[in-house]
Design brief:
The chain is of the alpha/beta class and 266 residues long. A 5-stranded parallel β-sheet has the order 3-2-1-4-5, sandwiched between helices. Strand 1, helix 4 and strand 2 form a beta-alpha-beta unit. Helix 4 packs across helix 13. The radius of gyration is 19 Å and the shape is globular. 34% of the residues are buried.
């Protein structure tokens, strides 16, 4: 086992039981097999195109600012893989705009065609186990050049540096809590429209403030400039168009799957 992997498990006091749960989620028989796969991804990484992973940690105080983050990174032309546990607040938000189940069944196609994969995972891992499992899942992908962790858990600075240097990835951490935002069904419908009432203007401002840390680091901007940039996106057509196209894309996948099922039954 690599020293970096040993240090990761040691830093978070991963017991045999927790390790088994993580390995089961990642579909590896043991640590040796996992370590070999990580080494293989490391060797292949320089030859692959770049992909951005956004790792969403479970939230005590959920915020739609987290859910908007992968929409923003995708609009900014980063092929983005958003990895999160299938919590109710995330599903409730996304299902206003597209078919989550359809996107889940076509992850690779969604990433290729839409530059966005929304990977909402059903599992029995606790929040810490999923945090480590999702970190490893990103490292196992040879396309990963950058990852952003969204949530309160931080990597120990020495360990973070070791992982970045050894595995050849950049890890950005956004650990300040995001704004808690309450939206009605009608607000959800109008959130990405150009014209906004006073409440939605305030919501857009909060989303821009929350996500400015991420965009500032991704785009090499000051946080103030990043915040203004995101507000412009929220009032422009960019995010609205992304959401609309994703909706059409997921409908097409859903209809195609229904046709396939109908042919099998007939």
């Amino acid at each position: 086992m690599s020293l970096e992997l040993q240090n990761l498990f040691h830093a978070y006091a991963i017991s045999e039981q927790k390790l088994t749960a993580i390995l089961t989620y990642l579909d590896y028989a043991d640590v040796v097999e996992l370590d070999q796969a990580l080494e293989q991804a490391l060797q292949q990484r320089p030859q692959h195109a770049s992909k951005l992973y956004l790792l969403q940690q479970s939230q005590q105080n959920p915020s739609i600012s987290y859910a908007v983050a992968p929409l923003l990174s995708s609009v900014l032309d980063y092929p983005s893989h958003y990895l999160a546990q299938a919590e109710d607040w995330l599903i409730d938000f996304y299902q206003h705009y597209f078919r989550i189940d359809a996107l889940a069944s076509a992850k690779a196609q969604s990433l290729t065609d839409m530059q966005l994969c929304l990977d909402l995972v059903e599992n029995d891992l606790n929040s810490m186990e999923f945090y480590l499992a999702s970190l490893l899942q990103a490292l196992l992908d040879p396309q990963t050049k950058r990852m952003v962790t969204l949530g309160s858990t931080q990597l120990i600075s020495e360990l973070k540096q070791q992982l970045m240097v050894y595995y050849g990835v950049e890890i950005l951490e956004i650990y300040q809590p995001f704004s808690r935002i309450e939206l009605t069904e009608l607000d959800m419908k109008k959130l990405f429209w150009k014209r906004k009432d006073g409440h939605l203007a305030q919501v857009s401002q909060s989303i821009a403030y929350d996500n400015s840390r991420m965009v500032a680091q991704l785009c090499q901007l000051s946080r103030t400039d990043a915040e203004r940039f995101i507000e412009d996106l929220m009032y422009g057509e960019h995010v609205f168009e992304k959401v609309s196209v994703l909706g059409e894309f997921s409908d097409t996948i859903y209809k195609h799957e229904c046709e396939k099922m109908h042919k099998l039954i007939a």
